[in-house]
Write a structure and sequence with these properties.
Rossmann fold, 6-stranded parallel sheet, 2 domains, alpha/beta, 13 helices, 352 residues
């Protein structure tokens, strides 16, 4: 079997899932080619797992100061180029397309009648999970941005739906824990982050951001993004302040880290993620980046580690079996292998 795997480059959670599955495909001896879109070609990093991958511009959203910029997003995305790339992508060599919310490979598969398995967090929103700001446009985007013949949606809880646990790389807490708080707010202004954190001089923060601020406060360590350095800091930190993306939160939940979320305004997925975590009692949420909210959160205790099973090999085995209409058995086995906090079990009656 030869597979084309299309991956959305907006957000690092898509890349994390792709790395997990790429290693599983390699262990199974499956021939896989990779196509990435959604961010500039020179902004991808740690891509060794994907070999000589393809890149297309694709579609993404633009942000400023923690908000989606609708007008800038419309101007930035070249729909004509995207449509041309869809028409020119030849899927004749492939038996299957695996897709993580990547529009070019998904629409090419639809037009050329090639089976497409969507594996993403976004696919979870096609089922009755907690949503915030739900509306017609959001549902259209989730359904048609990257259509698939079969959907494997991932979420932190099954919510009585056919969903999978998060697909993340193995991570364990370090024996030596420190008092630094990890901060990952890529959509916020670097200067605004530094200004808010400077007002808490007795707490040390470790910030990962694409740009440095004008001045770095003495209580802040500032880092450009590195996967290895980030994972090391995450494993030993006392808590995480981040946006409400799926990937990092999943890793923090596994480690039992306390969470303070600042979701991206205007972004349906992040607002819904924040709501789901509040309902589960797994995170605190702030509407704005605010020193007072951070100070109220800092004394809170650590959370209870969530036990999600390794998913890469299980998904690849399911794909190779070819029974793609049987999603429920894969979901059932996966949640049976999970260890959810007892408090979560009382919020949604366990379906399995």
């Amino acid at each position: 079997m030869r597979i084309l795997y299309g991956v959305q480059g907006t957000g690092n959670g898509h890349l994390t899932r792709a790395r997990v599955l790429a290693k599983a495909f390699k262990r199974a001896g499956v021939q896989v080619d990779y196509l990435f879109s959604g961010r500039a070609s020179d902004q991808f990093f740690d891509m060794d797992d994907f070999g000589a991958y393809q890149w297309r511009q694709g579609l993404t959203f633009c942000t400023a100061n923690g908000k989606v910029q609708v007008g800038k997003t419309a101007r930035h995305n070249n729909l004509w180029r995207c449509w041309r790339d869809i028409k020119q992508l030849d899927l004749q060599p492939y038996d299957l397309v695996v897709n993580d919310f990547e529009p070019i490979s998904a629409w090419a598969a639809k037009q050329q009648r090639v089976a497409c398995i969507g594996v993403s967090h976004q696919k979870a929103f096609l089922q009755p999970v907690p949503v915030a700001g739900d509306g017609f446009i959001n549902q259209v985007v989730m359904k048609y941005f990257a259509p698939s013949t079969t959907s494997l949606g991932c979420h932190w809880h099954h919510f009585d739906c056919n969903l999978l646990p998060p697909i993340i790389e193995p991570i364990t807490a370090t024996a030596e824990q420190h008092n630094r708080v990890l901060v990952y707010l890529p959509f916020e202004s670097a200067d605004e982050i530094a200004q808010q954190l400077a007002g808490m001089p007795h707490q040390h923060f470790s910030v990962f951001h694409g740009q440095p601020p004008v001045a770095i406060p003495p209580n802040v360590s500032w880092h450009s993004f590195s996967r290895d350095a980030f994972q090391h800091e995450l494993a030993g930190c006392s808590g995480v302040i981040c946006s409400a993306g799926f990937g990092l939160v999943s890793e923090a939940l596994v480690l039992g880290k306390k969470l303070l979320l600042k979701p991206l305004h205007g972004q349906f997925e992040q607002l819904s993620n924040a709501l789901a975590l509040e309902l589960l009692g797994a995170a605190s949420v702030m509407k704005q980046l605010d020193k007072a909210d951070i100070e109220r959160w800092l004394p809170q205790p650590q959370g209870v580690p969530v036990g999600y099973p390794p998913m890469g090999d299980a998904i690849v085995e399911w794909l190779l079996a070819g029974r793609w209409d049987d999603v429920s058995s894969l979901c059932q086995r996966s949640w049976q292998r999970s260890q959810l906090p007892e408090a979560w079990l009382h919020k949604w009656v366990t379906a399995y």
